[in-house]
Each structure stands twice: as C-alpha cells, then as structure tokens.
Amino acid sequence: MNAPGVVHELPPVGGTCTRCCLALPAELPAADLYSRDPDQITCTVRAAAELPADQDDGESPFGWRG
Ligand SMILES: [Zn+2]
C-alpha cells in the first residue's frame, strides 16, 4: 500500500537515515521525495512508531493522522 510520491525528511547534517522513518535514502523507493520543510513531509512511519505498540493498525484515538 505504498502511495507514490511520499515525501521524507532529509537526513540531518552528519546523519545517514531519514528522521521520519529511520531509513537510508538509498533503501527507499526512487519515486520518493525529500524535503526539510515539515509541512511537506508526508511520511508518517515515525509518528506511528512513537505510538504505543499495542495500538491497532487503524484509527488512532489521538488523531495523529491529522
Ligand atoms: Zn520517511
């Protein structure tokens, strides 16, 4: 269920992994994009990972999907 054109946060200076999903850019799909503007980042893997591990893979009571 990978949507095309996911925007990831660029790795920080001196870093190698994206902060949004802790992946190496080389490991991500070539179609994905990168940005330093939080408003443009659509990758939400990190936000999901910070939720309690026992959450269902669906709607969140915290409304993190914004
Ligand atoms: Zn990402």
Key terms for this structure?
66 residues; little secondary structure; two-stranded parallel ribbon; 1 helix; 2 strands; 8% helix; binds zinc ion
Helicity range of the residues? under 10%
Quantity of strands, as a count: 2
Q: Briefly note the structural class of the backbone.
A: little secondary structure
* Order of strands across the main sheet: 1-2
Q: Which of globular, elongated, flat, extended, rod-shaped describes the shape?
A: globular
Distance between the termini: 19 Å
Query: Strand content of the residues, in percent?
Result: 5-15%
In terms of quaternary structure, the protein is single chain
* Poorly predicted sequence stretches spanning 5 or more consecutive residues: none
What integer value in Å does the Rg equal?
A: 13 Å
Average residue-wise pLDDT:
78
Please give the structural blueprint.
Layout: E1 7-9, E2 33-35, H1 45-49
Parallel strand pairs: 1-2
Model description:
- The chain is largely without helices or strands and 66 residues long.
- The chain has 1 helix and 2 strands; from the N terminus they run ββα.
- The chain starts with 6 loop residues before the first strand and ends in a 17-residue tail after the last helix.
- The mean pLDDT is 78.
- The protein binds zinc ion.
- The site of zinc ion has 6 residues, from loops.
